[in-house]
Amino acid sequence: MGGTDEGGALTVTATKLDTTELDAGSISNFLYLEARLADEHQYLAWLDLWAPGDVLYWCPPEEGSDPSRVVCLVYDDREKLEQRVARWESGYAWAQD
User: Fold this and answer.
1) In whole angstroms, what is the distance from residue 84 CA to residue 73 CA?
2) Distance of CA 73 to CAs 9, 13, 57, 59, 62, Å?
3) What contacts 57, CB < 8 A, 6 or more positions away?
4) What is the pLDDT along the chain (97 residues), one digit of tens a residue?
5) 86-92 own/partner pairs: CB under 8 Å, 24+ apart
6) Phi, psi at residue 63, to the nearest 5°?
7) Closest CA to 34 of 18, 62, 15
8) What predicted TM-score, i.e. pTM, was given to this entire model?
């Protein structure tokens, strides 16, 4: 899934999750990869995890939430994910330390 470059920095190669044979281990590995890419600001590789087309990236505020009735932490389709990553990559996305 990755290695190091000549400067010793960690590099990660994103791979899509094979949904034909889902098990707890492959789901867990995918979630850890997703988190690592986001933590290391590798947003284009993170975006590549999500297939083009009908994608819904949803982070409900609590289990069992209905997105039509509550404010969700994230409720993005593919276009919104691409816009979000473009803003992060621009260097103009404000974040509080």
Assistant:
1) 14
2) 31, 27, 10, 5, 10
3) 50, 74, 75, 76, 77, 81
4) 444 445 444 444 445 555 667 788 888 998 999 999 999 999 999 999 887 888 888 888 888 888 889 898 888 999 999 998 999 888 887 776 6
5) 88/41, 88/43, 89/43, 89/44
6) -60, 140
7) 15
8) 0.65
